[in-house]
Amino acid sequence: MSSLARLDVLAEGYADDRVGSSVVLVRDGDAVVVVDPGMVASRAAILDPLSRNGVGPEQVTDVVFSHHHPDHTLNAALFPRARFHDHWAVYQDDVWDSRPAEGFRLGDSTWLLETPGHTVQDITTAVRTDDGLVVCTHLWWTAEGPAEDPYATDLDVLRASRERVLALSPVLIVPGHGPAFAPGPSTPV
Q: Which of 38, 62, 70, 86 has the smallest count of CB within 10 Å of its CB?
């Protein structure tokens, strides 16, 4: 049986008069993954908790962008040796390797899902941990939703992707701009 991954939230996102993305560290075997290294109050908001977790920026092997809005990608250059993943490719240095995100494995317990909704290119990072499945996704901004994402290009697609993710029975959702939460009956679909 493969070992399970460890997930730590480096920065808890927010979206009010200022905007910060939720930034996550995943360690899965040899894979050291950062999800959505976007806008934060300062780079220290990413680098300090990364260091407290015993990881240097040069040790990060992979960076995942849930989508291409700057508030989720702005600090990607902090990780000089990483491969970068989005909905349709893996990038490293000057190599562009086209591939669909759906089912792509970053480690034994970490994989990508195509989950359009906030944008048509959205992906979710699924992580199997000791506590159960954790998903990092922008299908929800916070535990409250919003129920109808004001930037969604198609609310029916958003709802279908939310239903797909909830059907996986995650124990925790790390949303794009808020604290991690356990999904329940009040979670917007």
A: 70
CB 160 within 8 A of CB 34: no
Identify the CA nearest to 177 among candidates 144, 129, 150, 133.
144
Q: Which helix (H) or strand (E) holds 179?
A: none
**Domains in the chain, number:** 1
Residue 26: inside a domain: yes
- Taking the alpha carbons of 164, 166, 172, 177 in that order, is the dihedral positive or negative? positive
The token pair at 65 is: 């962008």
Give the whole-angstrom CA distance, residue 2 versus residue 13. 31
Q: Residue 8 pLDDT more than 80?
A: yes
Tens-place pLDDT, residues 57-92: 999 999 999 999 999 999 999 999 999 999 999 999
Place of tokens 């990780």: 79
